[in-house]
Amino acid sequence: MPMEEGRSRVVIEGVAPEIDCGRYPIKRVVGDKIGVEADVFTDGHDSLSCVLLYRPAGADRWTKTAMAALVNDRWRGEFRVTELGEYQYTLEAWVDRFKTWRRDFAKRVDAGQDVAVDLLIGADLIEATIERAGADAPQLTRFGDLLRSGGHEALQAAQSDELTDLMSRHAGRLFVTKYKRELGVWVDRMKARFSTWYEFFPRSFGTDGQHGTFKDAEETLPYVARMGFDVLYLPPIHPIGRSFRKGRNNTAAAGPGDPGSPWAIGAEEGGHKAIHPQLGTLDDFRRLVDRARQHGIEIGTDIAFQCSPDHPYVKEHPEWFRRRPDGTIQYAENPPKNYQDIYPFDFETEHWHELWEELLSIVRYWIDQGIRIFRVDNPHTKPFPFWEWLIGEVRRDYPETIFLAEAFTRPKVMYRLAKLGFSQSYNYFPWRNTKSELMAYFTELTRTEVGEFFGANLWPNTPDILPEALQIGGRPTFMARLILAATLGASYGIYGPAYELCVNQPLEIGREEYRDSEKYEIKQWDLNRPDSLSSLIARVNAIRHENPALQSNADLRFLHTDNEEIIAYTKIADDQSNQILTVVNLDPHYVQSGWLDLPLEDLKLDPRHPYQLHDLLSDNRYLWQGPRGYVELNPRTVPAHIFRIRRKVRTEQDFDYYL
Amino acid sequence: MPMEEGRSRVVIEGVAPEIDCGRYPIKRVVGDKIGVEADVFTDGHDSLSCVLLYRPAGADRWTKTAMAALVNDRWRGEFRVTELGEYQYTLEAWVDRFKTWRRDFAKRVDAGQDVAVDLLIGADLIEATIERAGADAPQLTRFGDLLRSGGHEALQAAQSDELTDLMSRHAGRLFVTKYKRELGVWVDRMKARFSTWYEFFPRSFGTDGQHGTFKDAEETLPYVARMGFDVLYLPPIHPIGRSFRKGRNNTAAAGPGDPGSPWAIGAEEGGHKAIHPQLGTLDDFRRLVDRARQHGIEIGTDIAFQCSPDHPYVKEHPEWFRRRPDGTIQYAENPPKNYQDIYPFDFETEHWHELWEELLSIVRYWIDQGIRIFRVDNPHTKPFPFWEWLIGEVRRDYPETIFLAEAFTRPKVMYRLAKLGFSQSYNYFPWRNTKSELMAYFTELTRTEVGEFFGANLWPNTPDILPEALQIGGRPTFMARLILAATLGASYGIYGPAYELCVNQPLEIGREEYRDSEKYEIKQWDLNRPDSLSSLIARVNAIRHENPALQSNADLRFLHTDNEEIIAYTKIADDQSNQILTVVNLDPHYVQSGWLDLPLEDLKLDPRHPYQLHDLLSDNRYLWQGPRGYVELNPRTVPAHIFRIRRKVRTEQDFDYYL
């Protein structure tokens, strides 16, 4: 005989969202409404009540909100998260005797049956409720007496909304079933979802080919701000190792003037908490952070947990590295390739506790300098438990911190990093180019469970990746890929000025590295070149800021088009006030045209009235009616429309009669 | 800093099968091979090893078997269950340093690199293994010395299969990750999956309209056995209540000669442990059970946990029933309908412990009489925790017991009952008639997670259900629905002789109850009517017994046909030795013909050679080649083919050159 209560008859199962049986929280941003569904049912025909419970993690009390039955034993409730940090939610349900009685009573009355005994049963249920009804007790007593009195007044009282409300307020919750897990929500700030990133190498902004400084970077802020970026991510700003330093185009031996890769961290001058002397001082850096903020830009820095052979750790903490039988330290390798300029940490060292604490102290150090956005280099080559711990530790004190995972790796590894805490992640966007590739991938990212925890940040290029499509397609593809990134993803970023200047020469044919990559040399950029895409980028980013639909991925839907080179999709703001339809010609060579099918019902468009498509890129307007419309896009001008859909709201021929 | 080992770097997730986070076991039968898959991965590029652990529940030791990597970080392993009862399985994985070293070593050798230091690293790994290598220690010592010697012999030794095997056998399992759940398998006997049921009312087999007895039922056993049924299920055999007894056609007042419904259990003569005096004695019943066994038939009885007002429990245990304010006992109701002849138990009574124990004692009583198959009436009107407990208690001592849930209820309720222990369940088959309905429903039952726990038992009719399709379609539909049930379901049953005699008069148009239902009166059946379907049924059941493909639902696949009235599907035996293709004309009125597409690859058929379709119903043979074939079926003769697919195995024109 089970010791537990055998009379808890309600089942709660199939709760969604729920990631890996509650092992990980779902992710949301402050202000989000969270819909929770579950299968809730019992034996027999009794009526149920079901509540959703939620609270900021650690709060003493749950807030409860009623759930409503949908169809097929599915129930739904909602709550809103209003603070940064962790929330919890769970469910409770019970057989509701009064609700059951009330429903059956109505059926009996409708069938003209004698309900004398039923009135007494109802009165008993009321009586059992009185003791916990507080101020409502007298009212309930009155109802109880009425029901016992029988007659016409009793019938009315039994079926009154007031009695139903009172009984629901003080419901018995007899033999309540509590869902066996408390599920988590991690609540980020809005920027974790909606952010527009620009990456540049400060050292390339010096005058006359000199090594650029933080002060030079300050001068570049207005340019970045004009384009509408709100995160400026800097590659590592630390001293660069000299041993085995890489030369131009990643050659094994650096020339005397070669600056080295910023990711070869650590030299005599210091390690992960030091600043490269040629960039400036810590004060210069803090000033850059402040100035950026004045331009509406947040500086993000790089966390690359690896060392050059010259890093102070190598001497101070040899126990954090793996030693080879010949006494040398194990360098990075991906056999048969060897990377002698990089020493990875040995996360299997007996001293892993100390190593973890030191790495955390690096993040804390930069937090103390005002940084709250970190782009993490290759997180998939360090243990998952380490990241889960580190991000947890940081966020306990600084829940506003955003971590972007540079996890260009296998899908399950990428998703695991997102589950354990990374707010955003690089992803396969650079290699999803055709219509079917894009539709399949973004359906996976936004319309499956992945959307509950994975925050995609779309980069059409990075210093490491010049995708084949950009090499081949040139300027039309640079435009198209930027618009795709900016409209498919609430977060996206570019590595510039290489992007806006359409740099597309690979190291060699068949490779995706840049020729004369900025990773290994100091570049000079002509930001004012007339063919720069900076104005288009500024326009696109302004559209993103003005249209809430583009600030989330929750409601991305692809439309059918009859041309394989034309992709079209809608995004709709939560409150339906803003609807964006993006149409892109993926072909960099030819004008493409075709018909697309609009889901009028989803868009709440009346098939009997025309609606307006306002192209926010060109400012042209089109009048459509019904579900099909014609588009034609020339890749040489602008290969896309970003339409705001405007519904007619007045019948008069006013000037602005569309909303 | 977490207290747990931060160096356990491997992740195990996405384990399948796993029902509701391991809350419920999957189900299999003795002899089954169970395939287990999981996502297993770690950070970086290290090689993994992964093992599947399994044991009969409660055994001290796990048996371990290696899992193999598929693609995309998915791993798979298998084990076989050989005993009745519960098994457990779980997984372990670890970063395998030697495997990693071995893989990288080969790459370095291929690239012509200096591997002197790598040989020393390998030797160190071997040395660390020696202490746990037992009898293999000297062998490993020899390998270690060889590797340290350097030179050509060392290269060969390092890459030898012998060394790989030795190191794998004594693998370090450093920082092993154990999957956090132990998952269950409930292993039934084969009959839980593959069973052929016949239901009849013994009282209708008396001579000259007398109330039939168990002795009369004995006489009928050869008839049932000839048709090939292996379970004979009897409606309740207990004394029938007199108060509020229902008359013919479910009328409220019974006439003096009306026998009452067997489901109104309990009278002066006794309750659930008593036998209806007119059926015979307990000895007669035990003799029927024995005789049936001699015919290869197992008797199944009914568990209907409800009481007539005359049941002894009502006086002896009034605390097990709910009392109304007027002092009467609450009868069954589904407002506005009232069922005064039935008292449900009050499972919310304070005395629920005693009630549960008593109900269990009823099952135990019939187990003592030799019964191991129970058809449970309306289990969805009693609490889920009760059934989980009761089935668990019974199976601890009698794991061979089979419970069939008569759960004609909502899908999630039906599935929950299956998860908590019912071996088989009634289901929506009676109301799935068109091709698209059948395909959608049986895809859900067999190709989703449902197949892991839900054992469908298909009944084209029951004493309560005469589906509209049978009323309308007559004899052709009786043939088609029987063949569908017998080939779509490894378990199926009919309520006879009403079925084989094609009884199809409803109580009234638009109702699914039988007119003059056997539930309320004693019938007389002419079993020898020339239009009886008994020969067809015998043929179909013989085919089921001879063809293993039809004894499981695991590999049901629907084929494309170009005619909406023709449904076609294959079943393939586990070892591929038996392949059955069933084709049914769903139209009772017209000859239908069409082309169907065979998946040659799944069937391992060579498109370059003909193959034979041997119709096991008609014994006709057809020679086909390639993926398309023509069928034509006349509903007036037999509306189906049950083809055994025979591949040509010899090139000579021998007599039996097909297998």
How far apart lie the N and C ends of chain A? 65 Å
Q: How many β strands of chain A by DSSP?
A: 30
H/I helix tally of chain A:
14
Strand arrangement across the biggest beta sheet of chain A? 20-19-18-13-12-11-22-21
Structural class of chain A: alpha/beta
Q: For the residues shown, what is the average pLDDT of chain A?
A: 96
Most extensive chain-chain interface: A-B, 62 and 62 residues
Comma- or semicolon-separated keywords:
alpha/beta; homodimer; 659 residues
Question: What's the structural blueprint in terms of helices and strands?
Answer:
The structure is a homodimer of 659-residue chains.
Chain A: E1 11-16, E2 26-29, E3 33-41, E4 48-56, E5 63-66, E6 68-69, E7 74-80, E8 85-95, H1 97-110, H2 116-130, H3 137-149, H4 151-158, H5 161-169, E9 177-178, E10 183-188, E11 195-199, H6 214-226, E12 231-233, H7 282-294, E13 298-303, E14 306-307, H8 312-316, E15 332-334, E16 337-339, E17 343-344, H9 352-368, E18 373-377, H10 384-397, E19 402-406, H11 411-420, E20 424-425, H12 435-447, E21 457-458, H13 468-488, E22 491-495, H14 534-546, E23 557-558, E24 566-572, E25 579-585, E26 592-597, E27 611-615, E28 621-624, E29 628-633, E30 640-647
Parallel strand pairs in A: 2-10, 11-12, 11-22, 12-13, 13-18, 18-19, 19-20, 21-22
Antiparallel strand pairs in A: 1-3, 3-7, 4-5, 4-8, 6-7, 8-9, 8-10, 14-17, 15-16, 23-24, 24-25, 25-30, 26-29, 27-28, 27-30
Helix pairs in contact in A: 1-2, 2-3, 3-4, 6-7, 9-10, 13-14
